[in-house]
Design a protein that fits this description.
8 strands, alpha+beta, 172 residues, two-stranded antiparallel sheet, six-stranded mixed β-sheet
């Protein structure tokens, strides 16, 4: 398992105006997160945190691939992703998230970025992810075709219950 300690930023210890950030995420990162939907991938994250009077500005850019199941055959597919994240971070009485503003407990002063990075990556994964035509698992595709409700062969058309023919006449 990967330690998530390296993704913590001690806001109180920042001395420079701009601090550069860089991480290479692998499958261990994804597996170390609780309840993560994506369990493997290779993503490079770069960014910076800028210290200003009263708040911090965090910008991150993530680029790489994650493995997700194909919607058709359920085999894993490498899904390229590219994500950008910009947040304002403030110190306050307790931890709070509101839109693009995060308030970190001022007594602690630690920003945990691991879940923020993961969320930005997940939001960059397209809703539909399928293999290129012909790349899906052949056995699964045969099974899907066999059990598909939309069959167009003549043999299947002759086996239709006659009561459905009466209902078809009611269609406008």
């Amino acid at each position: 398992m990967c330690s998530l300690e390296r993704y913590k930023i001690d806001l109180k210890a920042l001395t420079e105006d701009i601090t550069s950030l860089e991480w290479d995420l692998d499958s261990q990162f994804f597996k170390s997160l609780e309840d993560a939907q994506v369990q493997s991938g290779s993503v490079h994250v770069s960014g910076s945190i800028r210290k200003t009077v009263g708040f911090f500005e965090l910008t991150l850019h993530s680029e790489g691939t994650v493995q997700v199941p194909c919607d058709r055959c359920l085999d894993m597919i490498d899904q390229p992703i590219k994500a950008d994240l910009r947040l304002i971070v403030k110190l306050g009485p307790e931890y709070q998230e509101e839109d693009d503003v995060i308030t970190v407990d001022e007594n602690e002063g630690i920003l945990q970025t691991a879940w923020l990075i993961y969320e930005s990556i997940i939001l960059a994964v397209p809703i539909q992810h399928v293999h290129q035509p012909g790349d899906c698992n052949d056995a699964m595709m045969r099974m899907l075709k066999e059990h598909s409700a939309a069959r167009s062969s003549d043999a299947d058309a002759k086996e239709i219950d006659p009561r459905w023919d009466a209902l078809k006449k009611l269609k406008i």
